[in-house]
Each structure stands twice: as structure tokens, then as C-alpha cells.
Amino acid sequence: MKLTILNQFYPPDYAATGQLLEELSIELSKKELDVQIFAGQPGYAFDQDLAPAQEVCQGVLIRRTRTSRLWPQRLRGRAIAGILYCLRAIVKLRLKRRLGDLILVTTEPPYLMVVAYILHLLYKKPYICLIYDLYPDVAVKLGVAKEKDAIVKLWRWLNHLTWQKAEAIIVLSESMAKVVADKEPALAGKIEVVHIAKNEIVRTILAKLYPMQKLAILPY
Fold first, then answer.
1. How far apart are the C-alpha atoms of 161 and 101, rounded to whole Å?
2. What distance in Å separates the CA atoms of residue 107 and residue 122, rounded to the nearest whole number?
3. Residue 216 has pLDDT above 50, yes or no
4. CB contact at 8 A, 104 and 125
5. Are 5 and 36 spatial neighbours (Cβ–Cβ below 8 Å)?
6. pTM to 2 decimals?
7. Which residues make beta-bridge pairs with 168?
8. N or C: which end of the chain has fewer CB within 10 A?
9. Are 33 and 2 in contact (CB under 8 A)?
10. pLDDT tens-digit profile of 53-69?
């Protein structure tokens, strides 16, 4: 079984989201899963040279695109780099055989989940959403956007479409689960609160990849 993980940041980058996914991907590879990461070049680790475009590390295949390296120290540049990363992900994963059996998509960059939705429409590939931060709520709270703005309304509509087709919506706290459930009551059954230290994400992913009768014999 093959799992594709989409997240802009991955070691040697310093971003915490990448560090988390490195631990998760290595743990999943130990379960005899074929795990591949599609990430960008280091954006926070400014002192690092370009990482290899493709490498295998501890059983995990890592593919990186250079587009996310553009203008890393500017807020607007990071936003543009995030969009370019998303477009590059669609291009690189346009071949059905590259996608594998399940996609794990995060909110780094915040609009990345739309990529999984598009790939699902094209190839009917199932995906799981892992939400670090809830957008556009964060942007509204920080005063970067207003609730009445067209971009906020569009973002909420895209969230609805993306979450509706997801196999599961993973959040990291009960409070975030409540916010998502309040916005999408019909999807409450898909929301799963996980605790990273307990490897609950691993179990959630395996549950979507394997029939439940086989899941019981897998080591955790």
C-alpha cells in the first residue's frame, strides 16, 4: 500500500510541521507502507543549501520542488511560493500511478487541501485532511482579512467542498474539533481528535488503508 503526504515543509527545514511529518512518515514506513513525501525546498532554514530534489531517507521517498524557495523571507513571497508549490504538486502528481492508495494533506500552505480535492476529482483517490491551523479563521482573527471579504467566503466554500469529500478530518485539539463541527455539523462523524505523542494519526491512516479485520494484527 502506498501513502502520499503533501506538506510544503520537511527536514532539513526547521518548520515544526515538517518535523512532525518526518516522525510520522518514518513510523508509517515501519508498518510496511510505501510512503512518499512531496515537499518544497527549505524555506525557514536559510542557512541550508538546497536539499536533494529526490532522496530516500529511512525508508521514505522524499520529492522536493524548488518553487517554495522563492522569496522565503517576505510574507507576500511566502504566499506566492505556497501557491506555486500547490501548482507544482498537481503537475508532479498528475500521473495516477504516482499518487498511491491514499493521500494525507495538511494545511501547510493553508490552501493545500484544495490540491487533494482536485486530485480526488481527477482520479477518485481518497484523502485525509490534517488541520494544523484553521483558515480563513486565522486570517480574520489576525485582521489580515474580514469576514465579509470575497476571498474569505470563497475559502470557506472550498473548505466545505474539501472536507465533504475527505475520508477523515484530523485535528489536534478538542477546541478545534468543536469549531469545525460547528461550521459543518453534517461532517461531525469524520472529525477525529488525535494526540501526536500517542501515534493516533498512524492508527487513523492505517484504518483507512486496511480492512478493520486486518488492522487488528498490525503492530502499533
1. 21
2. 21
3. no
4. no
5. yes
6. 0.87
7. 128
8. C
9. yes
10. 899 999 999 998 876 55
Q: What are the backbone dihedrals phi and psi of residue 34, each rounded to the nearest 5 degrees, phi first?
A: -90, 105
Of 139, 136, 137, 118, the closest CA to residue 127 belongs to: 118
pLDDT of residue 198: 54
Residue 109: asked if its preceding bond is cis (omega within 30°), the reply is yes
Grid coordinates of 192:
477525529
Angle at 38 between CA 99 and CA 163, to 5 degrees: 65
> Can you tell me the distance from the alpha carbon of 108 to that of 79, in angstroms, rounded to the nearest whole number?
11
Dihedral in degrees, nearest 10, Cα atoms 138, 141, 142, 144: 80
Which of the residue ranges 72-76, 140-144, 181-185 has the most confident prediction, judged by mean pLDDT? 181-185
Contact 105, 128 (CB under 8 A): yes
Largest CA distance in the chain: 51
- DSSP-assigned states of every residue in the chain: -EEEEE-S--TTS--HHHHHHHHHHHHHHTTT-EEEEEEES-SS-TTSPPPPSEEEETTEEEEEEGGGGSSTTSHHHHHHHHHHHHHHHHHHT-SHHHH-SEEEEESSSTTTHHHHHHHHHHH---EEEEESS-TTHHHHHTTSS-TTSHHHHHHHHHHHHHHHH-SEEEESSHHHHHHHHHH-GGGGGGEEE--GGGTHHHHHHHHHHS-HHHHTTS--
